[in-house]
């Protein structure tokens, strides 16, 4: 099973600041990695697929990078609506796995 | 806008069974891989099962293999999850999710979820 480790567990930032979230895979997932956002009481929302492709209607302040085992989700300037939990997910191998999540909270 | 509406959750005793359904609309259901993903209270996301667009390929997490069965009815635009031999650790919100067109095992639309509670 491919284990995805997300860091940090919690990121405390202010609106307007840059957020950098990490996802590390226990073995190569090529670029078959996605990022999701989940707000309290809501379903997850796909942000990034294929490591760097923004999903439909996702603002340009969200960007993804990386390949192999190390991936980054960057939010260039935090909007108040961006405070949420973020998960990475790999689709290279079965079972599909998610990272444990990074909570981006208001400082 | 794609719509996915889950139903069938509730309280069930350990060892019991439950069948979840997901009604899909506003897209061509038969073209897409579909999945179930769950989230235990206060925890992260856990993939449960995936079914290919024509139902011919199914995969399960080890934690549910042999107890859960995923199925679909493309004539009724419905995805189902039959859950047998339920355990306390199956307690979670269960989400129905649609595979993305260019990345079938990433999920671009999710339902609102249905809560399954396994408890005596």
What does this protein structure show overall?
The complex is a heterodimer of chains A (107) and B (120). Chain A has 107 residues and is mostly beta strands. Chain A has strands at residues 4-7, 10-13, 19-25, 33-38, 45-49, 53-54, 62-67, 70-75, 85-90, 97-98, 102-106. Chain A has no helices and eleven strands. In chain A, a hairpin with a 2-residue loop joins strand 7 and strand 8 (70-75). Helix content of chain B is 0%, strand content 55%. Chain B contains no helices and eleven strands. In chain B, the strands form two sheets. In chain B, strands 2, 4, 5, 6, 9, 10 and 11 form a seven-stranded mixed beta sheet that branches. In chain B, strands 1-3-8-7 form a four-stranded antiparallel beta sheet, with no helix packed on it. Chain B is globular, with a radius of gyration of 13 Å. The model of chain B has no long low-confidence stretch (mean pLDDT 96). Chains A and B meet through strand 4, strand 5 and strand 10 of A and strand 5 and strand 10 of B.
The averaged pLDDT of chain B comes out at 96
* Span of the ends, CA to CA of chain A: 35 Å
Order of helices and strands of chain A: EEEEEEEEEEE
Query: Structural class from helices and strands of chain A?
Result: mainly beta
Approximately how much beta-strand content do the residues of chain B carry?
A: over 45%
Helix proportion range of chain B: under 10%
Question: Cα-atom Rg of chain A, whole angstroms?
Answer: 13 Å
Low-confidence stretches of chain B: none
Category from helices, strands and their pairing of chain B: mainly beta
Helical run tally of chain B: 0
Mean pLDDT of chain A: 97
Distance between the termini of chain B: 39 Å
């Amino acid at each position: 099973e491919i284990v995805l480790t997300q860091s940090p567990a919690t990121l405390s930032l202010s609106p307007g600041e840059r957020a950098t979230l990490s996802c590390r895979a226990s073995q190569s997932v090529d670029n078959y990695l996605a990022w999701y956002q989940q707000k309290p009481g809501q379903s997850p929302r796909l942000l990034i697929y294929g490591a760097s492709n923004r999903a439909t209607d996702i603002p340009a302040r969200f960007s993804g990078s990386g390949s192999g085992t190390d991936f980054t989700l960057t939010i260039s300037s935090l909007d108040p609506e961006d405070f949420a939990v973020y998960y990475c997910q790999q689709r290279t191998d079965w079972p599909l796995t998610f990272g444990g999540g990074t909570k981006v909270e208001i400082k | 806008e794609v719509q996915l509406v889950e139903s069938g959750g509730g309280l069930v005793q350990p060892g019991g069974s439950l069948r979840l359904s997901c009604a899909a609309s506003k897209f061509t259901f038969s073209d897409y891989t579909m999945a179930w993903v769950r989230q235990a209270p206060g925890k992260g996301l856990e993939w449960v099962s995936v079914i290919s667009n024509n139902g011919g390929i199914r995969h399960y997490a080890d934690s549910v293999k042999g107890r859960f069965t995923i199925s679909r009815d493309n004539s009724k635009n419905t995805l189902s999850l039959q859950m047998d031999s339920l355990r306390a650790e199956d307690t979670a919100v269960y989400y129905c999710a649609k595979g993305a067109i260019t990345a079938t095992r990433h999920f671009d639309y999710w339902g609102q979820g249905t809560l399954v509670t396994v408890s005596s």
